[in-house]
Structure formats: structure tokens, C-alpha cells
């Protein structure tokens, strides 16, 4: 029996019920709006679709249900954009979503609860509007080609059902689907990350080349509020990136991973431009790190751990601790490679990254790729992965991963006869080269936006093969934006992620029978914070204007300048003294 997810659905809304009917099947799902009870009906059922008194909408999938203070809400796909096609299966990007209350009225809520309810709704929307989420109706985006084929057929094994066979590490609506019965036809798993699919030509032969980055739901969060490892061995900003290409006869997949340094450490925002990372005391780093790598080796095989952080300054303490921990583990499946990216590539000498690629070349040759014929014959398995990190697992990490992926791709193309005699590299002037660079740069920007709130740094190198002046300017602007978001808005963004992933669950009676972590008084506090910060900025701007553009340097101007300096100084001292009060910290799970 085919278990593909239904693609086109009619959504009937009546005062008492929701009906979800596939356009090409004689069945439907019925949801009672008062109780939330869900039932499935086929031919012969006594239940019928409504004839009058309903609103009809077209939807493209059900993402699940979530409980907010106002009760249960159904989350549905209202719009989508085609990314591309892999093995005749369309891959879609989520471009429209609706969160619909089962209870048609909020009159049962107090004013405080109504405020909290609207806040929860906006937080859910904030996550769903973060670029980008992806889904497919017949292709398992949560699994790599190798894992997919080991479980079922390479198109996603529709006989099992996408959600049932999915890798739950990468299903971002898993908590929403937990409130929805496992009806395989209706359950649509979402991944968060980046997907690009391109049909390209090499010497007259066509292939489909794709990049799929899957962000993990475990220990997920924002840049400065989600660092290091947790007690279960899950690390922050963990991403599996798969590069694959499909020809008329072959499929080839190459997987890499990235993830935060697997130790207990933190980098608490405190209004400083770059807070110092600190190892946490009283935690068993060794046990958590061991759990992490035991799991990784079980899933992927041997690991080459590429650490790109600085060997001096604030990052050095983490480099030494990571090195010492891996040495103590004495796991024969782990190879630690430390490469001081900033030192080796200083003065924009990014060509020196070839030193790292040459250093790990033998391990890459040993790991290989997953290569399978379209007839199902397996020619090789990938037998290990490169796990790369920098301090954020963003900018430096993406640069190195793109170089490793390029080497793997070119080796596979040589093996499959895509190059002419003597050729070993993609023509740097070819369209394929331009596509490769653009896709990896976009991958950097999207993963960075999802974790830090801004696009990645250093993407000018990934796009052009060299660092540029405009790239440095762009990096400066993104760094300023990161500073603002990390200090003044990421607490709410972290709360939104916790709510969406179900790490924090709203309980019945919240805000009435017991207090909610989010209260209306937060709004007044936030207003006061922003007022003080705005005052500081205005004083700084006026001070600069007086200095740079005075009408004339007379006594009046001097006194005005002195007055503004004194006021700016007192304001700065006040903010510095109370700086932690100005940081936007998470409130749902503040001890994380």
C-alpha cells in the first residue's frame, strides 16, 4: 500500500469541525474543534463532508497541532515553492503557513492570558518564518542517500511512510506531529536548513547536483544562548550536510557534519562585542563528550575532527580542552586535526587552506563516498565523516566544508568518466563552477541566519575564490547586526525555538491556575530597556555631529560639547553597571 503524503488537500472549516480531504482520494480526516478529537474516515463511514455552512480552503499539507494558551491549534501549509527534483520527486520550500485555532473564540481567557496567547502565536510564526524549511511528499529529506537505501528504496520507501522512517534528529515539526495521529498519508515532516538542486552539464552529459543541509532539533537554539554540549551528548548547531549527484545510471552521496565543540562551555551575552567563551566547572565533560562521539561513530563510522578555532587568545582555552578530552577518550575511531584558521589565512591568504586539505587527503580517500547504481547495485559505502567546527560552526566551517566537498565531487566525476583525459578539476570558468560556489555560499548564509540571525561571514571567498574589500565591508555590517541581535533580541528567539520544538510545552490553565514565564509586565520592561538604549544612541550621534559639523568653535559650542560628553559618560556608566539587565535573556527555560 502506497504511503506517500497527500499533496493537495481540501480544508473544510465549520463552526464545530475541521475536515481535511485529499483531492484524489475518497477519505478524510475529521477534527472536533471543541475536544480536539481526530478521526479518520473512508468509504462506508457514516460521517460525511459538509454540504452547506462551511469555508473551503486549499492547503498543501498538515504540519501538526500545537497547544497554546488559547487551546489547540492546527498548523497547515498554505503555500510552497519548488526547489527542484531528485529522482522524479519534487522538493518543496515552505513559503506559506497558517496556525488555526480549534476554539473559535478567546472569550474564556483573561486579558493577561490573551496577551500571552498572542505572544505565543507570534513566536510560533517567528520560527516558521525563519528561512528555510523544506518538505517532500515522496522523498525522505531527513535521511542521507546511504541511510535511506539501508532502510528501504532510495526514493524514500513510501511503503513505510515518511515520518515513520524519518531520522527524528532532523524533523523540526516532530513535537507538532506528536499531537496528531500517525496517519501516514497526512503526516508531512519538515527539515530546517538549506536545499539546492541544479541540473548541470559537463562535456555534454547532464547530471543533477544537490546540496542538503539538515539542522538538528536537539540542543537547538541561538548563537550565544546555545553553545557546546548537553548531558545527553547533543551539541549546539549540529548540521548534517549531504552533497549528492544523480546521473542516468548512478547516484553518489558525500556527507559531512558540523557541531559545536563537544564540551560544556558558554559565551553569555553581556553587551561586550565578543564575550569570552568559558568552560563550565562542575560538569563531566568526558562523559558527555564520550556519549556524543559514541553516537556519531555508530551512525557514521570513524570521525576526523577538524577544529578551526584560534590557538591563542579567548578561544585557546577551548582548543586545549578539546584536544585533551579527545586524547583522554583514546577512541581509535577519532582523529583530531587542529588548524588555526585565522593564523594560517591571515592577510587574506586563503590559498593556504590547501595545507589543511592536503593534510586530510588520505583520510578522505579512505572514507570514500556512497555510490550506488540506479539498478540498486552498491559500488561503495562512505565509511567515515569529517566533523568540522569553529567557534560558531558557521563562517570558517563552511569555507572548509566547501573545499572538502569540491575534492570529493571532482574525484567522483573523474571516476564516472565526466572529465576528458587528463582533467581532474571542474573548469573554473564553467557554469558548474559558478553554481557550486554560489550554492555553498548560500548554504553558509542560510545556516548562519538560522543560528546567528545574520548571513555568514567570509562568503566572498566561497563565491569568488578570494577575499574582497566589499566582502570585508559586508562582514563588518553582519557583525554589527549579530551584536545587536545576540544582545537585544535572541532571548525571545530562543524562547520561540523552545516552544516550537516542544522543549517547552504550554499546559492547560497556564496564566490562570499558575503563572506563565511570559507576562505582560515584560512589555513595559522591554520598553524601558529600549528607551535607555535609544537615548544612548541619540547622545552618541549628537556628540559626533557637534564634533564633526560645528557652526563654529566658540564658547557655546564648547559648553554644549562638554555637556553632551558628561551626559554620555554618565549614561554609558549606568548601562555598563547594569549591562546584564539590558540583555534579552530567554524566559521559558532560563537555566539552559
From TrEMBL:
Question: Catalytic activity annotated for this protein?
Answer: a 1,2-diacyl-sn-glycero-3-phospho-(1D-myo-inositol-3-phosphate) + H2O = a 1,2-diacyl-sn-glycero-3-phospho-(1D-myo-inositol) + phosphate; a 1,2-diacyl-sn-glycero-3-phospho-(1D-myo-inositol 4-phosphate) + H2O = a 1,2-diacyl-sn-glycero-3-phospho-(1D-myo-inositol) + phosphate
Cite the EC number: 3.1.3.64
Can the keyword Transmembrane helix be found in this entry's annotation?
A: yes
Q: Where is the SAC domain?
A: 124-453
Give the source's domain of life in one word.
Eukaryota
Q: Which InterPro entries match?
A: SAC_dom
Gene Ontology process terms (BP): phosphatidylinositol dephosphorylation
Molecular-function GO term, any one: phosphatidylinositol-3-phosphate phosphatase activity
Q: Where are the transmembrane segments?
A: 532-551, 557-575
Q: Which UniProt keywords apply?
A: Membrane, Transmembrane, Transmembrane helix
Output the Pfam families linked to this UniProt entry.
Syja_N
Q: Which GO terms describe its cellular component?
A: endoplasmic reticulum
Return the broad EC class: hydrolase
Name this protein carries in UniProt: Phosphatidylinositol-3-phosphatase SAC1
Amino acid at each position: 500500500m502506497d504511503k506517500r503524503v497527500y499533496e493537495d488537500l481540501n480544508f473544510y472549516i465549520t463552526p464545530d469541525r475541521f475536515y481535511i480531504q485529499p483531492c484524489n482520494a475518497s477519505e478524510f480526516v475529521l477534527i472536533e474543534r471543541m475536544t480536539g478529537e481526530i478521526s479518520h474516515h473512508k468509504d462506508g463511514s457514516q460521517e460525511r463532508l459538509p454540504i452547506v455552512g462551511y469555508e473551503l480552503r486549499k492547503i498543501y499539507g498538515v504540519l501538526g497541532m500545537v497547544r497554546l494558551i488559547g487551546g489547540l491549534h492546527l498548523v497547515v501549509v498554505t503555500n510552497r515553492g519548488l526547489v527542484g527534483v531528485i529522482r522524479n520527486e519534487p522538493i518543496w520550500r515552505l513559503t506559506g503557513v497558517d496556525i488555526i485555532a480549534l476554539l473559535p473564540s478567546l472569550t474564556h481567557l483573561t486579558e493577561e492570558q490573551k496577551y500571552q496567547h498572542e505572544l505565543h502565536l507570534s513566536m510560533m510564526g517567528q520560527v516558521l518564518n525563519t528561512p528555510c524549511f523544506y518538505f517532500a511528499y515522496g522523498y525522505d529529506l531527513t535521511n542521507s542517500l546511504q541511510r535511506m537505501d539501508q532502510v528501504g528504496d532510495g526514493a524514500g520507501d513510501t511503503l513505510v511512510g515518511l515520518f515513520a522512517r524519518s531520522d527524528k534528529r532532523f524533523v523540526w515539526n516532530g513535537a507538532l506531529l506528536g499531537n496528531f495521529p500517525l496517519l501516514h498519508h497526512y503526516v508531512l515532516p519538515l527539515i530546517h536548513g538549506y536545499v539546492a538542486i541544479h541540473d548541470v552539464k559537463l562535456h555534454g552529459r547532464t547530471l543533477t547536483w544537490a546540496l542538503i543541509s539538515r539542522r538538528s532539533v536537539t540542543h537547538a537554539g541561538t548563537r550565544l544562548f546555545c553553545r557546546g554540549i548537553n548531558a545527553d551528548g547533543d551539541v549546539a548547531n549540529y548540521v548534517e550536510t549531504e552533497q549528492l549527484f544523480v546521473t542516468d545510471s548512478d547516484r553518489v552521496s558525500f556527507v559531512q557534519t558540523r557541531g559545536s565543540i563537544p564540551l560544556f562551555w558558554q559565551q553569555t551575552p553581556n553587551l561586550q562585542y565578543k564575550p569570552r567563551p568559558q568552560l563550565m566547572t562542575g560538569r563531566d565533560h568526558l562523559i558527555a563528550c564520550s556519549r556524543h562521539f559514541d553516537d556519531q561513530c555508530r551512525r557514521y563510522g570513524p570521525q576526523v575532527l577538524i577544529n578551526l578555532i584560534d590557538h591563542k587568545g579567548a578561544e585557546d582555552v577551548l582548543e586545549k580542552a578539546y584536544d585533551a578530552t579527545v586524547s583522554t577518550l583514546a577512541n581509535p575511531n577519532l582523529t583530531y586535526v587542529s588548524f588555526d584558521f585565522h593564523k594560517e589565512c591571515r592577510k587574506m591568504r586563503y590559498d593556504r587552506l590547501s595545507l589543511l586539505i592536503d593534510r586530510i587527503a588520505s583520510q578522505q580517500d579512505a572514507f570514500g563516498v556512497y555510490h550506488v547504481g540506479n539498478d540498486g547495485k552498491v559500488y561503495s559505502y562512505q565509511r567515515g565523516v569529517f566533523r568540522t567546527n569553529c567557534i560558531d560552526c558557521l563562517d570558517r566551517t563552511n569555507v572548509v566544508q566547501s573545499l572538502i566537498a569540491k575534492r570529493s565531487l571532482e574525484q567522483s566525476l573523474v571516476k564516472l568518466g565526466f572529465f576528458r583525459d587528463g582533467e581532474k578539476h571542474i573548469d573554473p570558468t564553467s557554469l558548474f563552477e559558478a553554481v557550486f560556489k554560489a550554492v555553498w555560499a548560500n548554504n553558509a548564509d542560510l545556516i548562519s541566519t538560522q543560528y546567528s540571525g545574520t548571513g555568514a561571514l567570509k562568503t566572498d571567498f566561497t563565491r569568488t575564490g578570494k577575499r574582497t574589500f566589499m566582502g570585508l565591508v559586508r562582514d563588518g555590517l553582519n557583525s554589527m547586526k549579530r551584536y545587536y541581535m545576540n544582545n537585544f533580541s535572541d532571548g525571545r528567539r530562543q524562547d520561540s525555538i523552545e516552544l516550537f520544538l516542544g522543549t517547552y510545552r504550554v499546559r492547560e490553565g497556564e496564566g490562570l491556575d499558575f503563572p506563565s514565564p511570559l507576562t505582560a509586565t515584560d512589555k513595559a520592561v522591554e520598553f524601558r530597556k529600549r528607551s535607555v538604549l535609544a537615548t544612548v544612541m541619540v547622545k552618541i550621534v549628537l556628540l559626533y555631529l557637534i564634533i564633526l559639523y560645528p557652526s563654529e568653535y566658540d564658547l557655546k559650542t564648547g559648553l554644549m560639547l562638554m555637556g553632551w560628553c558628561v551626559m554620555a559618560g554618565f549614561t554609558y556608566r549606568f548601562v555598563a553597571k547594569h549591562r546584564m539587565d539590558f540583555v534579552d535573556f530567554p524566559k521559558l527555560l532560563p537555566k539552559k
